[in-house]
Amino acid sequence: MSNFARAPLAAVLGPTNTGKTHLAVERMMGHASGMIGFPLRLLAREVYDRVAAAKGPDSVALITGEEKILPDKARWLLCTAESMPRDRDTAFVALDEAQLAADPERGHVFTDRLLHMRGREETMILGSDSLRPMLSALTPDADIISRPRFSTLSHAGAKKLSRLPPRSAIVAFSAEEVYAVAEMLRRLRGGAAVVMGALSPRTRNAQVAMFQAGEVDYLVATDAIGMGLNMDVHHVAFASLRKFDGRRRRRLHIHEMAQIAGRAGRHQRDGTFGTLGLEGAEHAQFTDEEVERIEAHEFPWLHQLYWRDGDPRFDTVETLIADLEAKPQEEVLRAAPEAVDLAVLKKLAGEAWVRERATDPAMVERLWAACGLPDFRKTGADGHARLVGRLFRHLSEGDGHIPAPVFAREVGALENLAGDVETLAGRLAAIRIWAYVAHRADWLADPAKGQARAEAIEQRLSDALHDRLTQRFVDRRTTVLMRDIGATGEEALPVRVDAEGIVTVDDEPIGTVSGFRFTVDAGTSHADTRRLLAAAERRLGGEWAERTAALVADSDEAFALVTETGAPVAISWRGETVAGLAAGRTLLEPALVLDRSLAALTDDQRSRIAARLQGWLARTLGRILAPLRTIGRTLGADQTAPAIRALLAPLMEAGGVLPRKAALGPLNALDKEQRYRVGRLGLTIGALDIFHPKLLKPEAIRWRLALAAASTDTPMPETPPPGATLLPEPKGRTLAAWRAAGFRGFAGQMLRIDMAERVARAAHDARDGKKPFAPDPALATSLGLSDAALAGLMRALGFQPAKPADGDGAPQWVWRGRRAPRARNREPAPGNAFAKLAELDLGRG
Q1: How far apart are CA 55 and CA 49, in angstroms?
Q2: What is the pLDDT confidence band of residue 844, given thresholds at 50, 70 and 90?
Q3: What is each CA distance from 765 to 650, 759, 774, 815, in whole angstroms?
Q4: Which of 613, 505, 521, 481 lies closest to 189 in space, CA to CA?
Q5: Rounded to whole angstroms, how far apart are CA atoms 698 and 741?
Q6: Cα distance between residue 820 and residue 827, in whole Å
Q7: Measured between alpha carbons, how far is 197 from 175 in angstroms, rounded to an integer?
Q8: Are 125 and 116 in contact (CB under 8 A)?
Q9: Which alpha helices (H) appear in 41-104, and where do they start and end?
Q10: Which of 187, 596, 681, 701 is the least crowded, having the fewest Cβ atoms under 10 Å away?
Q11: Overall average pLDDT of the 549-556 stretch
């Protein structure tokens, strides 16, 4: 294209964020045709998408080593620098990031394009101001234009990873470093997107989309981020200031630091840069001079560019190598270091079979084209030469094509979506090599079919790699929570609670709600637990309001008394604890204590819930413990005689069941009318106990024990099995609780007191004065009483064994009257037993 050298040539120089690339794209679209060379396949693809949207896909081409979209009528071409077609006649040509001509590995390519690629009507060279003296020496006719940065770039110092501001990009210089930093960010801040030059455009775009959409606030990238990729980055943090450049590990050059740091801030928004300090202090900090020059965009001028003959001769292999190793004539140019393609050519040239085949210019050129196969797998010259040699063997025999079965076998082996990030990244690098093969027009018999096959596999691998990267380096829940912190009003993230109680913030599950209790998912870290609880407290106000209204409006059947053995007595609403009972004014007036899970509610909501629960409690007590309520009202009535109060007060305090011995004084003090009034209460004044039969029903027993536990602020004791009349005698607190429930102990068995009264009546009916008699054994058998337990009960009732005439027959008993000895069963002595049973047993019920 040198015949267009007189067309306007402009060099637009300046730091990052000066709009140079945007200007070139706009200028190109203003011409009838055009071409731009970019430093990265990713950047070429990004601009291709933009131009194709503006001009239509049929008019725009994308040309890279492993991807070609080349419509027949394409007028605008977006290429990598290496893939710019040298024979294409276009009105406009631009070369982006031209200062890469000073790069030891790729510099010779950019130097060649800078010297020889020209547009018919206009040419633009874009790059750093450090390129100025080189342009003056090599292209003296160029009109050099300086562009200032749109925004300010300032140094923010070193920051810990946990203190990085949102919208930060962290730059590392190896895949291992990228993965390590991304893993730390996942634990600390919820994760990060990952961008590396080795990623396919599809994977890279998917990762960047997460960052741009705010799904993650951090991006971890290699130094490829410095090559014009446009992202919404506010701060750039260097994980290291040293890199391996292919030959040695060295400190970054000042212009490399600036190129990367300049990604912070876009257009009019200022940006900052700094370090993480993840390595030794001598490498992790910018010097004062480096900071000053980066902020001022002042960098050393380039004094040499790398060069290699871009149009070598193909007469023989020796001639080709000689041309590629030739020295430049211009003083400002320097021979490029031996690149991988030249190293591979030399290795293959040393093999006899290669020299035998590469004997004419066409085959030498074909060999050189094979050596240009990119080493995406980074296997080095030796390993890569073996692959190139296999391909050249096919390309130099038969019809000159790689056999379809060979291509199919190679790409088919890569169609495996299993494995971790590293495994998938390796397969993706390999498929990129075969995509490059397929895009060589004369390497396959059916290149279109090969391209489609390679592209399909690359896309599937790309999607799988994106998924693995996201799974490995993004904890979306933590990311959501970090975004949620401090969000108010329109910024607040949407919170939803589904029918199962699963709570989601921005569609990310964070826990469950049961009743008024928010529970963090199991396995959540301590730090995330605190964030989740804070998020729930801020965002579940509407849910609490709805649940409060539902509780207040619900029917009494939705509430229940919770009496779990060993736990505090509680009240539940639809299975979820909402309150507890504590000591109150009286046994029937316990204090209601709202559960801690209701702490997030407003005072008004808590008051409404408390009032609703109080109403349910009062109605339920009035239904289940109606006899106890009646006793309480009688005890408190002004017209109740003192003698009756003396009997009812201890009975009320004992929960409606009282040993008769404890009330002998009040019983003896009652006159006939008072006894009648006591009888009207439905009480049974038995030989051993005073009780109301309805208070011995299972639910009444449970409630009486629960109220007793609440009145002493103790856990709920074990309750007798519902409907049981005879039980094995327990120990400890359970023994006391079962006595209060209405059971008496006899020789290791406990009999419900109303059943004991049945035995008492039967014994009284069977005796004739003080003559010996044998109780009906059928009653004891039906109750399950052992002989020892029956004997204990008979003694407690005031009977003593009679001396039988012989040892045969059932045991006989004799009424002993008032002076009966104490029963041997731990129970208090019964007192007057049956002396006046007919008169005192006012309520046989």
Answers
A1: 10
A2: very low
A3: 31, 10, 11, 12
A4: 481
A5: 9
A6: 14
A7: 10
A8: no
A9: 41-55
A10: 596
A11: 96
**Are β-strands 689-691 and 684-685 bridged in parallel, bridged antiparallel, or unpaired?**
antiparallel
522 within 8 A of 529, measured Cβ to Cβ: no
CA angle 191, 475, 216 (to 5 degrees): 45
Instruction: At 280, list the tokens.
Output: 């030794």
Asked whether 368 and 314 are in contact (CB, 8 A), the reply is yes
- Paired strand residues for 591: 582
Do residues 461 and 511 lie in contact, with contact meaning Cβ atoms separated by under 8 Å? Answer: no
Per-residue pLDDT band for 274 (boundaries 50, 70, 90) equals very high
> Which of 383, 455, 453 lies closest to 201 in space, CA to CA?
455
Give the start-end residues of each E strand in 463-520: 495-497, 502-505, 508-514, 517-520
Tokens linked to 617: 């409690």
Q: What is the pLDDT of residue 250?
A: 87
Q: Which residue has the tokens 């391209």?
A: 451
User: How far apart (Å, rounded) are the C-alpha atoms in residues 534 and 154?
Assistant: 35
| Phi, then psi, of 7 in degrees rounded to 5 | -65, 155
Q: What is the pLDDT of residues 753-770, one digit of tens each?
A: 999 999 999 999 888 888
Q: CA torsion 751→756→759→765, rounded to 10°?
A: 180
Strand partners, 509: 504
Contacts of 555 (CB under 8 A, 6+ apart): none
Q: Three-class SS of residue 56?
A: coil
731: helix, strand or coil:
coil
Phi, psi of 160, deg, nearest 5: -70, 155
Return the percent helix, strand and coil in the chain, to nearest 5. 45, 15, 35
The pLDDT tens digits for 409-440 are 999 999 999 999 889 999 999 999 999 999 99
Give the C-alpha separation, 74 to 91, whole Å. Answer: 13
Q: Which domains does the chain have, with CATH numbers?
A: 2-146 (3.40.50.300), 153-296 (3.40.50.300), 338-473 (no CATH), 476-531 (no CATH), 559-724 (no CATH), 745-840 (no CATH)
Q: How far apart are CA 483 and CA 539, in angstroms?
A: 13
Q: How is residue 579 written in tokens?
A: 């309150």
- Taking the mean position of all CA atoms in its chain, how far away is CA 641? 70
The structure tokens listed for 482 are 């970090």
Round to the nearest angstrom and report the end-to-end CA distance of the chain.
Answer: 119
Instruction: Please compute the mean of the pLDDT values over residues 537-559 and round it to a whole number.
Output: 89
Q: CB atoms < 10 A from the CB of 418, how many?
A: 8
The H or E element that residue 815 is part of is strand 813-815
Query: What's residue 506's pLDDT?
Result: 62
Instruction: Write out pLDDT tens, residues 592-650.
Output: 999 999 988 999 999 999 999 999 999 999 999 999 999 999 998 999 999 999 999 99
60-63 and 68-69: which strand pairing? antiparallel
Diameter of the chain by CA atoms? 147
Do the beta carbons of residue 541 and residue 532 sit within 8 Å?
Answer: no
Tokens of 326: 């030739």
Exposed / middle / buried, residue 818 (Cβ in 10 Å: 0-12, 13-18, 19+):
exposed
For the chain, give the percent of residues with pLDDT over 90.
60
Joined tokens for residue 802: 């009679």
> Are residues 36 and 79 in contact, defined by beta-carbon separation less than 8 angstroms?
yes
